[in-house]
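Lab notebook page, bench 4
Experiment: in silico fold of construct C2
Operator: M.H.
Input chain length: 385 residues
Purpose: comparison with the prior construct
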Amino acid sequence: MATSNNMKLPVIAEQAYKKGIQLVGSGDCLHPKWRGELRQLKKVDDAFRHDRTYFVPTVEVEDASRVHHLLFVPSLSKAEELYETFKKHSLNIDTDGRPTVKLTGEEIASAAKESESLIGPAHAFTPWTGVYAYYDSLSKCYGSLVSYISFVELGLSADTSYADPISDLRRLTFLTNSDAHSPWPNKFAREFTRVEVENIGFDELKKAILRTEGRRPVLNVGLFPGEGKYNESACIRCAKHYTLKEAIALSWRCKCGGRIKKGVKDRAAELADVETSSRRPPYLHTIPLSEIIALSLGYSSSNNKTVQGAWEKLITAFGSEVNVLVDVDLDKIDFVDGRITKAIKAFRDGEVIMHPGGGGKYGSIELPSASQTNKSGGQSALGDF
């Protein structure tokens, strides 16, 4: 549901390679037919492979309180066990890739532990279905199983700066993953996590998430939280933005009469109770390459022929979108419009201008003028990763 008909494993694998993603979470692995599709792939140790792209079984489930949880599952046989456990508590497990399971977060975590799956809150700060929309701490959601939680998926709504000052999350690995409803590079892997492992598969991924035996995340890449339509507290009728103090003083009622919706940024600030740590991997804020190209050239759509032509040239030259966004020496990009190179650099250096969203209205990004670029600081150390 709400997913492109092109979301087939061979297409996902092909587009993942163009994007620069080696390991993909399958999603929906409790769905019987999707498990059947995964079984058609070549089994390589503890992962599945199509051409050059590897898959591990994953699933997102909704609990009885509407909170969403993400599970990394070691095998399809373990996914089958989870299916049998959850089927007794779900009316849509055979029809919806993200089923609703009428269990508590603690009960779902117990099932995950029993199946040797990893579990953490999915898009933890999303206003409607994130764990912090309903609870002030993970222990209130997961109860006695809170110590088994090993990661938090920041999702499109938050980044490290939002989550790290929350002591509740201090011991957990931050994953920047986003679900994909389409396989094309401007939608697929808008967010991803780079990890240091010896080979590709579930066991090595597990070690990286648990940060054991030298495996670890080394880079988080994601969209700007400010792009979210509920980033700042704002009126859902007129979209006027308010500070948290102002909203509280107005009892969350806008001067126009509309309701002020608390923003993710303010919700994270409410939960913050410790200083930011320096031990987290770097976080690169960026957007899909085709959108950067469109923004730099002044086009409103990334589907423009000129934009797509420039994108193809860059991918052909450097192998993948991730290489261009993160790794390539920008001095080597001298065969496309110079505005594109400057825009990529602005994202790498953290110099773009963010106009935050709120009240149901998405935020927007603006490139800096020439006089605003070449500032010190930003994210210039990314070449180390």
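Observations: The chain has two domains: 9-222, 289-384. The longest strand covers residues 216-222.
Next step: discuss at group meeting.
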